[in-house]
Structure formats: structure tokens, C-alpha cells
Amino acid sequence: TSAQIGVTGLAVMGRNLARNFARNGYTVAVHNRTVSRTKSLVEEFGHEGDFVAAETAEEFVAALERPRRLVVMVKAGRPTDAVIEEFAPLLEPGDMIIDGGNAHFADTRRRERELRERGIHFVGTGISGGEEGALHGPSIMPGGSKESYESLGPMLEKISAKAADGAPCVTHVGPDGAGHFVKMVHNGIEYADMQLIGEAYQLLRDVAGYTPAQIADIFRTWNTGRLDSYLIEITAEVLSHVDEASGKPFVDVVVDQAEQKGTGRWTVQIALDLGVPVSGIAEAVFARSLSGHAALRDASRGLSGPKPSALGESEAAAFADRVEQALYASKIVSYTQGFHEIAAGSEEYDWDIDLGAVSAIWRGGCIIRAAFLDRIRAAYDAQPGLPSLLSDETFAREIAEAQDDWREVLVAATRQGVPTPGFAAALAYYDALRAPRLPAALTQGQRDFFGAHTYRRVDRDGSFHTLWGGDRSEVSE
Ligand code: NBP
């Protein structure tokens, strides 16, 4: 029997992905560096479909029909290169290596280039949805050549999540590293979403005075509206969970130091390189980092500031409604920033990414799946060249309606000393974009003063310098 697809790297993700292919009727060759994983997969789940267990790389490659489709699900970084070095010599022109790990897109570009020279298609593929997604249907973001997608697309469409309208959550994102780039920004947006939800929780707790169980109910209500999303849904689950050992809310017994694996940080690093202001995502990454500085936080607990005082019952309910507005408006801004980064990456690397298609494949399977993404897609469908999501009429109107509450929430947060870097960064971005004039003019003046860096004028073309140390006359450069 020859297998239509092979998966090497059978930790949680690879094993579930292999099972997903098998459950969809494909014959799947399975391989792992440590053979026991391969054996246990076939022992435990062999009844789910057709698996071909391979102990060696040679056996694995031999089990695959041609052109070969070989999915690599190992730890990103060095292990991915090691696996490529192991398999590439065994492959033939036209074969495909699909890297489903969380690779950095620059690594994917390098690998794609190297393998292309050897006639092998390298398909860097973002896969989102965690282990459940891998098994039941992830959102899949493949890069690589068009040709490879023709061969792979139908299989990926079959195993992917389906959006509410039945559309598979996979599209050919673009050449070489486009898929991993989009997956990276997806994760950055996920960080921002989580930070904004965290801030909403903190405000409902400290300013409105609600208990975690009450806040869970508020989130459940929000989840029936425009904020309907996986992250809001699981937030309610986490908040209503009670720790068995202590009887306390679970959220009160967890150490408040957030960890990260790196894709959020990459999103910000690359945004800095591309010159794209993703301030909301950056604040989310920094907030996690700040939370982890235990010694710094311990040393700072005595610093002065207001103590939040809880509102009365009816005021609290009204405040919760405002927080919903603030959360929604901030969310629009963080998606605006994330899509700006994708557009900038697409421009820089000539990927020609369809932003509407990207929002469409995030509607199911992935961590940021949300009703909201339908509206983003509608915005790009209506106007493919939309310069910014904020220029979409619907989003602009929604922000206009939300903004009084958004500002009030930030006033309350500031007065009561509740940190809301995500909400604040989002509002600052919004206000900066709509400002008729920015203090950047003053910055240019300062730069010209100390470094003769020159400036442009509003009323004439060219670049100019003022002789600051002399008679302050202006010279044209
Ligand atoms: P891990 O990231 O924990 O990787 C473990 C796998 O890598 C095992 O199969 C291991 O083989 C293999 N491996 C390593 Br480590 N070094 C190797 C080498 N030098 N040669 C060959 N194989 C090697 O697994 P995971 O959590 O299933 O994630 C797989 C990929 O999917 C990662 O890139 C991850 O970032 C990405 N991802 C994960 C999630 C998630 O929710 N976990 C979601 C989306 C994407 P061994 O058994 O012999 O040690």
C-alpha cells in the first residue's frame, strides 16, 4: 500500500494531524525519531484508519506515493533543519516537504530557496488550533509554490476546520514564507486579544467589584453578541472554574506570571523591521514580560497610587456595558494593526496576500476564531484595497458609537490605577491616526536642531535645514 501523505514527528500535534488525515480516509505513513511514539500511535489509534508505520526514514519515504507529501511536525528551529537534512536526500524532484511547525518565516524562506534548487517543494504551513484543532480540524495557512498547493490543497481542505458557512479554513496564502508569516501575525493578534480580555476582566473585578463567577456570566452574555469568539468562550470557562483543593476561584490560585513561546515577540520584532505600528500587540507581549518580572514587581509593591474602590450595583452593570464597548473598539484596532503588518509583509516579500481570504480562514479552527472575522472579510470583499480596517464604514461607525464609553473606561482605569496598556494603546493609535496634526513636526524640528537631519515643509517641496546655531535662516538642501 502506498500512503497519500506521511507525517514525521508524532508528538501531540503530529499524532493528531496524522489521525485527522486517517479519519478522513487517507492512508497515512507515520514516523518519529523515537520509534516508540510511532508504535503507540498505531496501537492506540490504528483502528481509526489506514496507517503505515515506518521505523526508518528510508521506510517512511518508500511508503509514500509520488509525488511524495511529507509533513514535518517537529520542534521548530534546529530539529526542523535536522529532519530536512535527513529526508531531502531521499526525495525526488516534485516531492513536497510540508513544515507544519511554528517556524520563523525567514527560516522558511531560506529552506524553501534551498530545497527549490533541489527540485523539492517546501511548503511552510501555519497550523493553528492546538492539539484539538489538529485532530478535529485546524485553520491551515500554507505557503510555498502554487503547484504544491494544487496537489495538497484538496487534502488540506478535507482535514481543515470548516467555517459556519461550510467553507474550509485553508487557502494558499502565498509563496515561500507567506504561510508562516501569517501564522505569526495570527499569534500576535491572539496575544492582543488575550491581553484585552485580561484587562476587561481586571476592570470588571477591581472597578466594578464583580467576582470571577459573575464575570464569567458577563463574558457568557458578551459571547452571544458581536464578541462571540472562542477566546471569550474559554475565558468564561476558566473564570467560573473553582479550584478543588482550596475552594477558591481557579484564577486566584494561579501564579500571575504569563509565559510565551515566541511568536508574539516575533510579530513585534518583524513589525519594527517593517516599520508597522503594532502597538497593541507590543503591549500584550510587554504585559506578559512585565508579569514575569517577579523581583521587580515585589520591589515596587510599596509605590503609591489609588486603590480601586468598587462601584455600586447599578453603576457596576453600566460600567460592564462600557467595558464591552472598550473591548470591542480595542479589538478592532488590534486587528487593524495585525492586518497592516500582513499587508506590509506581503508588499515587502511580494506575496500578494489576499487579506479577505486570510480573515476567512481564521473563522474556524484557530484560537482567534470569532464571528468578528466575518465582518473583516466583508470589509475586504467590499474594498480589496482597503488601506486600513478603520477605513471600513462599518468599523468606523462602530468605533464612533463605542468611543465615549471607551474613553470613560480609560478614565476610570487611570483614576483607579488599574493598568490597561492594551486599551490605552489602541485608543492612542486611533487618536493618532485621526489627528489633524501630530507632534512629529516638533520631532523633526528637534532632529534638525541637534543633527541637521532636515525637514520637509507643508507649503513647499524639497528638504530644508534651519541654521540653528547661526542666524536661524533656512537653507534648502
Ligand atoms: P514538540 O514541539 O514538543 O516537538 C516534539 C517532536 O519533535 C517529537 O516528535 C520529537 O521527536 C521531534 N524532534 C525533536 Br524535539 N528534535 C528532533 C530531531 N533533531 N530530529 C527529529 N525529530 C526531532 O511537538 P508539538 O508540541 O507536537 O509541536 C510540533 C510543532 O507544531 C512545533 O513546531 C510547534 O511549535 C507546532 N505547533 C504546536 C502547537 C501546539 O498547540 N502544541 C500548535 C501549533 C503549532 P522525539 O519523539 O524523538 O523526541
UniProtKB/TrEMBL annotation:
EC number from the UniProt entry: 1.1.1.44
GO MF annotation terms: NADP binding; phosphogluconate dehydrogenase (decarboxylating) activity
Quaternary structure (record): Homodimer.
GO biological-process terms attached to the record: D-gluconate metabolic process; pentose-phosphate shunt
Record's keyword annotation contains Hydrolase: no
Chain residues that bind NADP(+): G9, L10, A11, V12, M13, G14, N32, R33, T34, V74, K75, A76, N102
Record-given protein name: 6-phosphogluconate dehydrogenase, decarboxylating
Domain 6-phosphogluconate dehydrogenase C-terminal: 179-469
Catalytic reaction equation(s): 6-phospho-D-gluconate + NADP(+) = D-ribulose 5-phosphate + CO2 + NADPH
NCBIfam families in the record: gnd, PRK09287.1
Active site, per annotation: K183 (proton acceptor), E190 (proton donor)
Family the UniProt entry places it in: Belongs to the 6-phosphogluconate dehydrogenase family.
